[in-house]
Design a protein that fits this description.
The chain is an all-alpha fold. The protein has two domains: 53 residues; 146 residues, no CATH class. The protein is 90% helix and 0% strand. It is elongated.
Length: 201
Amino acid sequence: MNNNDNKNTETLEQAQNEIIDATVDQTNILYDGQTKFNIKAEQNNVEAIEDKSENIIAGAVGAFLFALVGGILYFIIYQMGFIAGICGLITVVLSSFGYQLFAGKKGSVKGIVFSIIMSVLVLAAAEFFCLSYAIYNEFKADYGINFFDAVRSTPAFLSDGELLTHVIKDLLIAYALGAVASLGTIKANITASKQKKSEQA
């Protein structure tokens, strides 16, 4: 009888231990799952806060203002007789920096898009005013025109096929160099994003 009692006691203790171990394992699994869920929720909250902190309107203004600096450089270099297309690259870089500075967020897809749009518009305007200034210098002595008269007459001059081809060529060089800067910025942002995700994982 004593042997049977001992065996029953041992069996009962073993069963109790197995139940305790199983309970502990389940608790650990639940705890790990909850911890991972909390970490993921925390990351999502941080990302949401970061998205909310991006001021798109201010960023667009910043992109335009800094792109304008690139446009002014384009105009100045053009007057010096050099190929001003190099300013396409500078304009995109400046515009991207301006967006980040004003929007308060780095590596934003919206920032890249706005930077490219503002750069395209500003470079086109810079080329237009370069042509206007050339018209002004050519006709001011004979016709007594001012710069604003030249600006108003510029669209009419652009109807000339040869002149229009020259303008398009200048812009294509600027846009091509600007595209190089854009691709560099996009690549840097993708690399930074991958690094951030690997750190979070």
